[in-house]
Amino acid sequence: MPVWFLALGSVFVISLVSLAGVFTLSLGPARLERAVFLLVSFAVGAMLGGALLHLIPEAYEALGDGASTGALVLGGVMGFFVLEKFLHWRHQHDVPEALEGATGHGHAGHAHGTEPFAALNLAGTLAHNVIDGAIVAAAYLVSVETGLVATAAVLLHEIPQEIGNFGVLVYGGMAPRRALLFNFGAGLCGLLGAALALVAGREAADMLLPITAGAFLYIAGSDLIPELNRRHSQSAAKSAWQLVMMLLGAGVMALPLLLDQ
């Protein structure tokens, strides 16, 4: 099956996650938060497993075992830190109202229109999706297995993020239907990033492997794990479920390696 078809198809599937907000309208904030914490825990395991079990070993194989590969991983971590700072790529974990917005209890319909922070969040989401698309396409240029791993990791990471993005847009003043449309449009921008990576070719893909690993390590370590510790560590049962879901996420990433043996 052509790499272009697999890469663009995978990115399109990921873009469909931007419609996840529609399923939250019938949920209350409490139920939505319980579901999101399980998804976040699973995404942590998947992103760490994808980076440590697949992307970094494959980067060393493609680029050699010198310090340059490690430097590119470090560059991915630092680069995404800078991007998050300048593009406000936060998942709105510090804004509980984002969950209210996702369930239709936000500020939609206010006469003052859309708040600036909602537009800024949308711009950051667009840029984020372009880079995610490039990451997935570059992984497919290395191998189908690597592409599937990257797709799974990005997809799992996107689900809670897109729910949060939808909530922010609604809380910022957009009607739910309009917020869903804008969020989906931003999701489709991932196809642009994928096309650019596919045109750049395999050499660029090899360079993106360690950068992607650094990005996954940064997102899991900086955004997702602190969120689990901050909002979902009140009981031993919740902590146990976090660990179970993280192990499941890592297990999904380890499964292709076990099947190859």
Describe what this molecule looks like in 3D.
- This protein is mainly α and 261 residues long.
- It has one domain (35-252).
- It has ten helices and no strands.
- It is globular.
Write the layout of secondary structure elements.
Layout: H1 3-16, H2 29-63, H3 67-87, H4 97-102, H5 116-142, H6 144-171, H7 176-188, H8 190-200, H9 202-231, H10 236-260
Helix pairs in contact: 1-5, 1-6, 1-7, 1-8, 2-6, 2-9, 2-10, 3-9, 5-6, 5-7, 5-8, 5-9, 6-7
Assembly of the depicted chains: single chain
Helix share, percent: over 70%
What composes the largest sheet? Answer: none
Number of domains: 1
Tell me the β content.
under 5%
Q: Report Rg.
A: 18 Å
Averaged pLDDT, please? 79
Counting DSSP H or I runs of 4 or more residues, the number of helices is 10
| Class based on secondary structure composition and strand pairing | mainly alpha
Approximate shape: globular
Euclidean distance between termini CA atoms: 24 Å
Unreliable stretches, pLDDT < 50, 5 or more residues? 89-95, 108-112
Please provide the ordered H/E string of secondary-structure elements.
HHHHHHHHHH
